[in-house]
User: What shape does this take?
Amino acid sequence: MAERRQNWPGKRILFVILLLSGQAGLIWYGRVYNPAITLQQCLADPERYDSARIEVATEAVITAISDDGFMLRQMGKEIKVVGHSPDLRAGEFVSLTGIYHKEGWIESDKIHVAKKRRVKIAASLLPVLVVLVLFGKKFTFNLRRFEFTPR
Assistant: This one.
């Protein structure tokens, strides 16, 4: 007869602590050695970030088109972007890389239009829901042992 191996009770907790410590270390490393400059940082301290290369991608929407560029809104803040490709339209989600100028505008280098962004996000949620339903049919959560067990 095979002996059943006894697990140390704190093994799972130690494993979670190690994972969280590793994640915190990676976050610190990314912040120190590859700091991303955001549009909000530039607008809060224009002198410090003058001529800095920034990437604007999170929920960035074109609000208006002009002859020399367009107005971009991100997280409630609007900024003028100079330079654009001819197929841009108001209301499109974009990501761009450019040079921030302390006068309050961005000189764009690269612009990427996120076509049908909302549709792609909604479509990507469907497989997650299917996996959760299948997982819920196969397993149940045991509160005493704090783990999922087969049904």
The longest helix spans residues 11-33. The chain has two domains: 39-113, 117-150.
